[in-house]
Amino acid sequence: MANLAGKTLFITGASRGIGLAIALRAARDGANIVIAAKSGVPNPKLPGTIHTAAAAVEAAGGKALALQVDIREEEQVRAAAAQAAEHFGGIDIVVNNASAIWLAGTADTPMKRYDLMHQVNTRGTFLVTQSCLPYLKQASNPHVLMLSPPPNLDPKWFAPHTAYTIAKYGMSLCVLGMSAEFAPLGIAVNALWPRTVIATAAIAMIDGVQSAQCRKPEIVADAAHAMLTRVARDYTGHFAIDEEVLREAGISDFDAYAVQPGMPLLPDLFLD
Fold first, then answer.
1. DSSP bridge partners of 85
2. Distance separating alpha carbons of residues 161 and 158, to the nearest angstrom
3. Strand 63-68 relative to strand 93-96: parallel, antiparallel, unpaired?
4. Alpha helices of 183-272 — where are they, by DSSP H?
5. pTM > 0.85
6. Given pLDDT bands bounded at 50, 70 and 90, which one contains residue 207?
7. Can you give the C-alpha Rg of the chain in angstroms?
8. What's the angle, vertex CA 25, arms to CA 23 and CA 30, rounded to 5?
9. In the annotation, is 235 catalytic?
10. Chain segment 144-155, per-residue pLDDT in tens
11. Are 215 and 199 in contact (CB under 8 A)?
């Protein structure tokens, strides 16, 4: 499959950052984008809403459906999946991008933050995928993509932020289980993770990180596009890294993705 023209993508957290970048890359192919996110009104601390994202998708050449959804709420998610399928005639691809982050040790992690991360990251990913599953079963080349890291049980990735690591790895464990479970259905389930830190609102949670040391979200979007255009039955259960995916696609010069070319880049979490 050369592109995503006419495909319907259900993307969580697509009002900004990596989710929006993935939406815009697919929109350039002429895809239908369901923007499923909480941001219905502007937030002075965070750029973008579902409505500004929808406008950007339309401007890029795609069709957009903006749905205000809190993926912690089961009824909202199930209603959104049904509405998306009715509006566009189905769902071909699910991108589980929405994620909550709190990089702190055990003593400094309020249970409210612990609960938020687990409800959004692990439970939200499971719920969104489950809710879209009936429509994916009807799709011609169905994909589920998690923005989550390869599982790595080295204690160094747990010690500084045990709660976040468990919650984020929960998304990855969904890939392990669902890829095997859905293989007989021809539904691909894969994970994608950036080699370097990406310049998004989330980097504000990481002490000492400057955007000049990061890459743009477009590198993840281009890698996601390369994965989502592959034949689903032949490509599932992978924990892919953006650089590696792009190299396989023939791209080896990553300077254009740097926020400030020439600056040393920070490696992302969970990668040795």
1. none
2. 6
3. unpaired
4. 218-228, 242-248
5. yes
6. confident
7. 17
8. 85
9. no
10. 999 999 999 999
11. yes
